[in-house]
Specification:
31% helix, 10 strands, two-stranded antiparallel sheet, alpha/beta, globular, 243 residues
């Protein structure tokens, strides 16, 4: 906490200068602050959009099995709701009773605690030994990625979202792609159309962020960062700066 500013995606109310027509309006700070909306690679980035795009890229269909690692976290719990809206049967993977309660309340078909349960055995039992049709890796750990490779069925899709630290690379060879015909892709952004559709879902109450508000203070922020490192935060944390 001595060198970095934690978090992003700030929101607030414009209060100055007085001549600014946005004074009094609530605004947000996107990861990408400008988009031309004309070129073919134009995109927006933020948590909800990355998850909407990830679910779309998974090609999951109604009634199919979707693994979601880090399902009770800031990204995962949004992806879970988006996937359920598409009719997917979500296998939520995370740890702790609070995250289990959240995931099941949001419509997960099953919850697997990776600290206390045998994840591969549970997944294969749920999917009649075939494995899931797709997996969203929102947990940024090497172990999560390595394990997920064995949890999808032939012709399945893995969408990379979480970012493991260090120099981790997926342990894949051409044989893995040929043998199982799997697709591996990634998601950190989405299109303007994705944004509009997601906002419709939020406005309609189909996607509801789980938010814990924390008042600004160095000690409080350090505590939140520590909880994130220990995988203890349920949903998302928002740091509120006093006016």
């Amino acid at each position: 906490m001595t060198a970095h500013i934690p978090g992003h995606e700030g929101i607030g109310t414009v209060i100055s200068p007085a001549s600014d027509p946005l004074v009094g309006h609530r605004v947000g700070i996107r990861w990408i602050v400008y988009a031309c909306l004309e070129c073919e690679i134009c995109a927006f980035r933020e948590a909800g959009i990355s998850q909407y795009s990830a679910v779309k890229k998974s090609n999951i269909k109604e009634g199919e099995w979707l693994i979601l690692t880090g399902a009770g976290g800031g990204l995962g719990h949004l992806g879970l709701q988006i996937a359920r809206n598409r009719g997917a049967k979500v296998i939520a993977i995370d740890t702790g009773p609070d995250k289990k309660s959240l995931c099941l309340s949001l419509g997960a078909t099953a919850f697997i605690d990776y600290k206390t349960e045998d994840v591969p055995s549970r997944v294969h039992a749920l999917t009649t030994n075939y494995g899931a049709h797709a997996a969203l890796c929102t947990a940024g750990t090497a172990a999560s990625y390595t394990q997920t490779l064995d949890l999808v069925r032939p012709n399945g899709t893995i969408v990379c979202v979480g970012l493991p630290g260090g120099d981790f690379t997926l342990p894949l060879s051409p044989l893995d792609f040929v043998r199982k015909c799997i697709t591996v892709t990634g998601s950190s952004n989405g299109t303007r159309e994705d944004t509009e559709k997601l906002m419709e879902m939020v406005a309609g109450g189909e996607v509801v962020p789980r938010i814990e508000m924390v008042e600004w203070g160095v000690e409080q922020v350090e505590e939140v960062v520590g909880r994130l490192e220990r995988d203890e935060v349920v949903g998302r944390c928002v740091v509120r700066i006093a006016q």
